[in-house]
Design a protein that fits this description.
Radius of gyration: 18 Å
Strand order of the largest sheet: 1-4-5-6-2-3
Oligomer: single chain
Distance between the termini: 41 Å
Number of helices: 4
Number of strands: 6
Order of helices and strands: EHEEHHHEEE
Shape: globular
Length: 151
């Protein structure tokens, strides 16, 4: 597992010069793996997830606020305190973070997931954290997936 607090955030690459749109990037990111998005309102404490994050956690989808107690119960107990500290620090210092941690799984081995977070102020003046969340693929050998004899 890995936890990082962002002191030096990479600048966006810019895609205008190669004519790839934000919609194109979004489609590519989500094409072959679960890749979700989240947002947390700092004034209300409400957190919202896209559908893929619910699937990664094995929870039922809802458009409303996430049941964080249920979600946190699925984080590996050794990783949960670090995750919560990063969220608190990002909110307090108006910054972001990056982590890789373990989720427990009642149906099989634990899974590794990654999240990247940023802080922002909305046009209405409300502070929030927002980010991405992805599950890592199992390592699958490429042998046998491609027929080397095909042109």
């Amino acid at each position: 597992m890995r936890f990082e607090f962002d002191d030096d955030i990479r600048k966006p690459q810019g895609m205008d010069h190669i004519r790839i749109s934000g919609d194109d990037l979004f489609e590519l990111l989500c094409a072959h793996q679960k890749f979700g998005f989240w947002r947390s309102e700092l004034d209300t404490g409400h957190t919202f997830w896209s559908r893929d994050i619910f699937e990664i956690y094995g929870m039922n989808f809802t458009e409303g606020p996430v049941n964080l107690a249920a979600a946190n119960a699925l984080v590996h107990p050794e990783d949960l305190p670090y995750m919560l500290q990063l969220l608190e620090k990002a909110a307090r210092q108006k910054s972001g973070f990056h982590y890789v941690l373990r989720l427990r799984n009642a149906k099989g081995p634990e899974r590794y997931v990654r999240s990247v977070c940023r802080h922002r102020v909305t046009p209405e003046g409300r502070e929030e954290l927002y980010g991405i969340f992805q599950q890592f693929h199992d390592r699958t050998p490429l042998v046998g997936l491609i027929d080397a004899n095909e042109p």
